[in-house]
Amino acid sequence: MVRFDPLYNPYPSRRMTVYAKNGMVATSHPLAAQAGLDMLKRGGNAVDAAVAAAACLTVVEPTANGIGGDAFALVWSKGRLYGLNASGPAPQALSIEKVLHSGDKSMSRYGWLPVTVPGVPAAWAALAQRFGRLPLTAALEPAVNYGENGCPVSPVAGYYWQKACSIYRANLKGEEFAHWFATFAPEGRPPGIGEIWRSPGHAASLRLIAETNAEAFYRGELAEAIDRFARKTGGLITKADLAAFEPEWVDPISVNYRGYDVWELPPNGQGLVALLALKILEQYQDLAQDDPETYHRQIEAVKLAFADGRTYITDPREMQVKVEDLLSEAYARRRQRLISDTAMEPACGKPPQGGTVYLAVADNQGNMVSYIQSNYMGFGSGIVIPGTGIALQNRGHTFSLDPSHANCLKPGKRTYHTIIPGFLTKGGQPIGPFGVMGGFMQPQGHVQVIVNTVDFELNPQAALDAPRWQWVEGRKVEVESTVPNHIARALDQKGHQVNIALTSGGFGRGQIIWRMPDGVLAGGTEPRTDGTIASF
């Protein structure tokens, strides 16, 4: 098991780790956590609870995820870890030539061009069918209820809702965007914090998905609605694209970090970046808490990992290198030798911000789930299918239009994906799920959580509360205002261009659940959002 002091938490949230015996759900929203807990109390397992919480989050936190997004999951069940990749490909009609012909010189952020096939509904159905105890109708019931009867807007969701509405007003001008405003700003403005927001169309879509095990979304009524609106307003996604999609069960990948196995999903996700950085960091035996040198080494390791990730990660069918070669001991040593006492500038693009929800669940039968879903960049593309509440993702924005790039756009191809769930084991036994959402902050957050847990022996809550940093590009690094001044000054002296962020909005939002040897669950939740642990 992981070693930690349950009472030691020197960080500002002053929260304590939550302990429970029968079940635990950790999410970024209280109502979603409670929805998951309700499934456990009704006789469901961790997978039923994860699906319920995930579906609920599409209603109560639409600023970061939705029915029209993608999802990934790691599931521990009966002594084995399973991986699910539910990220959809580019439509068959979408190509580099098509984008360039439209006048864009890079993949757009808004509109139909960055829309890829959504994987979220298929993820719910696949998880429930393979591992769940309850029917999908039961798991989605709380989400349907909140869509129909409304839910009060939480503080963090309300803040990002207001921010997104301002951005979308400035950028979304065509008729294809009218339904975004009709759905998410129905009175000409975003709902305020504490105000009741309803989305009956969203509820109706969730009910159809539940009653048909997602068939309605890919081959039925909802697929017809997506196809019809795309043809009317210039979209490229078709019924055939939706009907052809199936989520993929995959074998997770891992590295051993100081005796612990850290697990991620293989590409097209960027979990490989976190593992590359940890392999580099394991070459150091003297990482110390609140030490400028430790910060420096972590930042440099992340830079090297991103340089590889941005170069090689794409649809696994088209990757030009083997994952096992990148994660080899010899390669890690070679990369570690590039780290000096001063900041480097690796060749890597500037990471944009993202919008995602992450949740962790555990039950008293030994099942554990690490789950993440996203529309990307908040609400996504700005395209909402009329009458359905379905906001479509803009995940295709990460495609390259350079034909020689590994992640170049091709019809039917899956792009480099930012959302990643994590899982920790030791000696073949589960310790538990962890994750930190937030675009390209995610592998950086995973690295920091693992270092906080394994090297510094922080309890789950303290590991999340600890001050965070984020490499941006070149030698630019952002740090939270809670990072000690002497560390920021020391990083500056090493050549890092340090910016102290005024808010914590860009540093990710995480959840952790660890299982103790006696079966007791220990959970931490994110202080940078409306994080909640529901347990019994």
CATH superfamily of the domain at 253-345 and 441-529: Gamma-glutamyltranspeptidase, large (L) subunit, C-terminal domain
Q: What is the mean pLDDT?
A: 94
Helix content: 25-40%
- Beta-sheet strand percentage? 15-25%
- Which CATH architecture of the domain at 253-345 and 441-529? Orthogonal Bundle
Record field, number of beta strands: 21
Biggest β-sheet, characterized?
7 strands, antiparallel
Which helices and strands, and how do they pair?
Layout: E1 18-20, E2 23-27, H1 30-41, H2 46-60, E3 70-77, E4 80-86, H3 96-101, H4 120-131, H5 136-139, H6 141-149, E5 151-152, H7 155-171, H8 178-184, E6 196-197, H9 200-211, H10 215-219, H11 221-233, H12 239-243, E7 248-250, E8 253-257, E9 260-264, H13 271-281, H14 292-312, H15 323-326, H16 329-336, E10 356-363, E11 368-374, E12 384-385, E13 390-391, E14 422-426, E15 429-437, H17 442-455, H18 460-465, E16 469-473, E17 476-479, H19 485-493, E18 497-500, E19 509-515, E20 521-525, E21 532-535
Parallel strand pairs: 17-18
Antiparallel strand pairs: 1-20, 2-10, 2-21, 3-4, 3-11, 4-7, 5-6, 8-9, 9-14, 10-11, 12-13, 14-15, 15-19, 16-17, 19-20
Description:
The chain has 536 residues and is of the alpha+beta class. The chain has a domain at 253-345 and 441-529: Gamma-glutamyltranspeptidase, large (L) subunit, C-terminal domain (Serum Albumin, Chain A, Domain 1). It has 19 helices and 21 strands. The strands form 5 sheets. Strands 1-20-19-15-14-9-8 form a 7-stranded antiparallel sheet. A hairpin with a 2-residue loop joins strand 8 and strand 9. The two termini are 22 Å apart. Residues 348-353 have low confidence and may be disordered.
